[in-house]
Amino acid sequence: MLLVLGCATGGVLLTLSLGDREPVLVLRRSVSVGQELEGADLREASIARGGGLDAVAADQRGAVVGRRVAYSLPAGMLLTKGSLGSPEVPPAGRAVAAVGLKTGQFPTGLQAGHRVEVVTTADEDATGGPSSSAESWAAVVTAVRIDNDDQLTVVTLELGEDQARELAAAQEGTLRVVMVRGGGGR
User: Fold this and answer.
1) What does 149-171 look like in DSSP terms, one character per residue?
2) Which of 84, 82, 43, 33 minimizes the C-alpha distance to 63?
3) pLDDT tens-digit map of 110-138
4) Which residue among 24, 62, 79, 153 is least crowded, i.e. fewest CB within 10 A of its CB?
5) Residue 78 gets which letter from DSSP?
6) Which of 62, 66, 59 is nearest to 31 (CA)?
């Protein structure tokens, strides 16, 4: 008798807790900083009420479509009110630089969010011999765009302000990108 009463009470509590959920918006696909949200970018999910999250309710879909995202966000991410608005990239002390790379200068499958090391390759010094002063910069990939006309891939990178200036001054054609440990996340 006590077991039956306990199971019934547990069932009632479970039903009440599952019933106290709210529909919210989640990203169906990844979006880049500054991108305008489209209806196809969003899907509905259900979360527990009162979780302390600033989630956008599913019934606000119409108010969200056409708004820009302040950060690059991965697919499956809960859409919050704080993730909408003016671009917040780069953060203070950071900068964004772009490099044009040809096939073989970066790993296949490189994408936004990957942690990388950008390395200068040996070039020739004034005497015609190879230079031994290679430089490298740690960065996070924020975007990858293939330009079919020039057969270049433009890789946009976030890194420290001083490092971004150094990278931008690097000689064209001497850069290589290496994906490093933890390369799949920011």
Assistant:
1) TTTEEEEEEEEEHHHHHHHHHSP
2) 84
3) 988 899 999 998 655 545 555 556 889 99
4) 62
5) B
6) 66
